[in-house]
Amino acid sequence: MQLQVARIGKPHGIRGEVTVQVLTDAPGDRFVPGTEFVVEPASAGPLTILSARWNKDILLLGFEEIETRNEAETLRGAKLFIETEELGEDDDEGWYEHELVGLEARVGSEVVGTIAALTTLPVQDLLTVKTPEGKEILVPFVEQIVPEVNVAEGFVLITPPPGLFGINEEGGAADSDETAPAEAGDDD
């Protein structure tokens, strides 16, 4: 099985290093010199780590196959995968993005959209729910708001706080009487 662990960003410096968006909770184990990644698109890989270092909160990777900034630029947007057999039954702590994307997002029995992405942040993760109208709603991926993830049946149950799905819509929580413009003729 292949597991996505990173997405390559922009080049850093002139020696072929790149920034990466880390998509694993164990970067110290995944990004060590000598590790080989399967790359999507396949034409960009495979890639083998030469160096890995942190610059503030950004992981910088150097690859044996990439020596210049111009070569690094061709990798922008590529996805890094590892071959893994270690996703066993003991891994009940969380879900990977590839397991969640495409699942129905339900509030009660009503389908409100589909999961489009999982964004991993230091404080909490966010699910991006794409509504049938094409809007994207960010939902905090915490147990109080997302009490059930059922990959086998293809859905995520959401118990949103009031206004979460209406916040960017007309008449939603963002539109209150206090912020509404005065009607013409109110100054009589």
Shape: elongated
Rg measurement, Å: 21 Å
Low-confidence stretches: 87-91, 170-188
Helix fraction? under 10%
Number of helices: 3
Architecture blueprint of SSEs:
Elements: E1 2-12, E2 17-22, H1 27-30, E3 36-40, E4 47-55, E5 58-63, H2 69-73, E6 79-83, H3 97-100, E7 104-107, E8 110-119, E9 126-130, E10 136-140, E11 148-150, E12 155-157
Parallel strand pairs: 7-12
Antiparallel strand pairs: 1-2, 1-6, 2-5, 3-4, 3-6, 4-5, 7-8, 8-9, 9-10, 11-12
Structural overview:
- The chain is mainly β and 188 residues long.
- The strands form 2 sheets. Strands 1-2-5-4-3-6 form a 6-stranded antiparallel beta barrel. The protein has a 6-stranded mixed beta sheet with strand order 10-9-8-7-12-11, with no helix packed on it.
- The protein starts with a strand and ends in a 31-residue tail after the last strand.
- The protein has helices at residues 27-30, 69-73, 97-100; strands spanning 2-12, 17-22, 36-40, 47-55, 58-63, 79-83, 104-107, 110-119, 126-130, 136-140, 148-150, 155-157.
- Helix content is 7%, strand content 38%.
- The protein is built from 3 helices and 12 strands.
- The relative contact order is 0.13.
